[in-house]
Design goal:
alpha+beta, 156 residues
Length: 156
């Protein structure tokens, strides 16, 4: 099963926890000092908010899947469509260890596709890339363009 994922940056976590708890008619599934997440069943949505990032609003969208096979299928779809894809593999972010990859739409909105492997007690186990507000990476380059623009050590 796929679960739609939305991550928003907010200014005041407690006010937003109150608002979204009322909206969803349930408390968050996970709450940390800078983060809250609701795992909604109807509709199936992983909705997260955090105070990380430079501005408020949408950080990224995505699909959370239940199995490694489902993630492999999503990755194959993106590769067949020649979509810009950044494969992070197993990584940590948002208080979870996940296997994930990213694609970016034409407007620059990052889409995370991931399979959660475990919960962890920290937001991230390693320092984020410079300029990264949350977990979303810089816009990846489509595979067809990578050979033309990328040199070892450069960032496309």
């Amino acid at each position: 099963m796929k679960r739609f994922h939305v991550h928003l940056h907010v200014q005041n976590l407690q006010k937003n926890i109150g608002f979204y708890s009322a909206l969803f008619h349930q408390p968050p599934t996970r709450t940390e000092a800078d983060y809250a997440k609701w795992m909604l069943e109807d509709p199936p949505v992983n909705f997260a908010i955090s105070t990380r990032g430079e501005g408020i609003g949408l950080d990224h969208l995505g699909f959370q899947v239940d199995s490694a096979d489902e993630l492999t299928a999503l990755k194959a779809q993106a590769q067949q469509a020649d979509l810009a894809l950044l494969d992070e593999g197993e990584t940590t972010c948002c208080y979870a260890r996940s296997d994930k990859h990213w694609i970016t739409d034409p407007q620059g909105v990052a889409w995370e596709q991931f399979h959660t492997l475990d919960n962890i007690p920290v937001f991230r186990e390693t320092a984020p890339t410079a300029g990264a507000a949350c977990c979303a990476p810089a816009t990846p380059t489509p595979p067809a363009a990578q050979a033309a623009c990328c040199n070892p050590g450069s960032r496309c």
